[in-house]
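A quick aside before the break. I want you to see a complete sequence-to-structure record at least once, exactly as it would be stored in a machine-readable document. Don't worry about memorizing anything.
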Amino acid sequence: MKRSKRFAIVAAVAAVAAAVALTGCSSDGNTDAPESDAAATTTLNAAADSAAALTGAAVVLDIEGSLQGVNASKVEADVATKPKVVGEGTATLTMGDKSVSAPFVYVDDHMYANVDDKGYLDYGDGRSIYDVSKILDADKGVPFVLRSIEGAKEDGTENIDGVETTKITGTVPAKDLSGLTGASPEAKGLDSTIPVTVWITKDGENNVARVLAQPAEGASMTITLSDWGKTVTAEKPADVKSPSVKPTTAPKSGEPTRQPVG
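That is the input. The structure line, written in tokens, reads:
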């Protein structure tokens, strides 16, 4: 056999061997994510379907620590998803050194909130307080997060507000939790994974009773759902004040730094 032909055969064999080696490495890389228990996966998928089908629920959001995308430390609301997303409740905000309770209404894609008893203002989509429309959103909210959980394991049963539930632990990619945390797509750390625990009712309805995640070091987000399927109605407040603006001249000591428009 001529030298050039032998060289071509050797090169071809080497190429095949390299391809096999690369394929093996790629396969190993795909197994980095921990496997989920079959029972846990079945329960999570059923719960995701139930959450996506919800027409309304009572929601309590609790934030411990500081999350960049969330300005509220607590939100208590009744939220409906169909025919349109509406909500009504109270957000607890930290303003300076005091905690402020702000009643709000979410209707027609706008959040109207009465912060510090100054009258209702239009806060747009509400992200500056908390975007309640995302909680039950099938593509960004609780249903989506349930389908994104990796390494899901059943961890016994617990009673949540008088309801027996199955507890499931796992992790979720940070980017898949950004719809609930309000994190910007450009935020740092979205390539990491986040510990998450969920509690699913054992009554056959597979409703989500609670979701607990740790989106940042020293911070946690807990979403508790109840009154699944409740009817919720909300109307725009009758007297919505105009937003405030900066004064045209520098305020003197003790004068407000914002002035009402109109």
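Two observations worth writing down. Residues 142 and 231 are 19 Å apart (CA to CA). The chain has four helices and 14 strands. We'll return to this after the break.
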